[in-house]
Amino acid sequence: MTDPVEWAGFVLSLAMVYCNIKEIHWGWPLAILSAILYGTVFWNSQLYGEASLQIMFVLTAAWGWQQWLRGTARAPLLTDAAENSSAPSPPKLSVTTLQPSERRVVFIATLLAWPAFSFFLNRYTDSDVAVWDGLVTALSLLGQYLLGRKKIENWWVWLLVNVLTVGLMVAKSLWLTAVLYAIFAVLSYIGLQAWRRNEH
Q1: How far apart are CA 200 and CA 187, in angstroms?
Q2: Are the CB atoms for 115 and 131 separated by under 8 Å?
Q3: pTM above 0.70, yes or no
């Protein structure tokens, strides 16, 4: 019998992705709620990387919500503290593409995070899918960051995450969640096409 908590997470997650595709900021609080629910489901299935990832999702969703409500096109880390306060305000956050230098940074960061997460899961938990779980965890954090900054590449990352997660959920017999991530994979492609039409 399917866990009712898993069902609730399933429904909230679909609503969240719909909001993300439509650039509706209410997707972020839905992400927080679904992450809390799925954190419980994954922990009980010994998917500790995925469970811990839900905590990060709660934190990054709060940040992403703030970005979509009040963020600007300029990345927070690139803000010049010495900038004259009388200068024009930077444009509001909109759908854009990563610059080549940004792509290198996120690629290297993900490449470093994957073995780090995998080592931690293998060393400190009884996970039997540490490398797989570590990869999904690293890619998911990347996807969440790119989504928060409205970078169109987030959909490519989520497509990969969703395909990998389908296999992970099947391996753990979380069939409803496997179906959810299969739907997510399709929605990732739909989101990519929708955001391409809105790209600036």
Answers
A1: 21
A2: no
A3: yes
Whats the size of the chain, residue-wise? 200
Q: How confident is the model at residue 78 (pLDDT cuts 50, 70, 90)?
A: very low
Question: Is 86 part of any domain?
Answer: no
Cα separation of 147 and 153, whole Å? 8
Domain range for 140: 4-74+94-198
d(CA 131, CA 120): 10
Residue 168, Cβ neighbours under 10 Å: how many? 23
Quick one: average pLDDT of 41-62? 84
Distance, CA of 35 to CA of 58 (rounded, Å) = 6
Please work out, in degrees rounded to the nearest 5, the angle formed at the alpha carbon of residue 183 by the alpha carbons of 177 and 186. Answer: 150
Question: Quick check: is 89 in a domain?
Answer: no
pLDDT, tens digit, for every residue of 124-163? 777 778 888 889 989 999 999 999 999 999 999 999 999 9
Report pLDDT for 2.
64
> Looking at the domain assignment, is residue 83 inside a domain?
no
The answer to whether the CB of 174 falls within 8 A of the CB of 192 is no
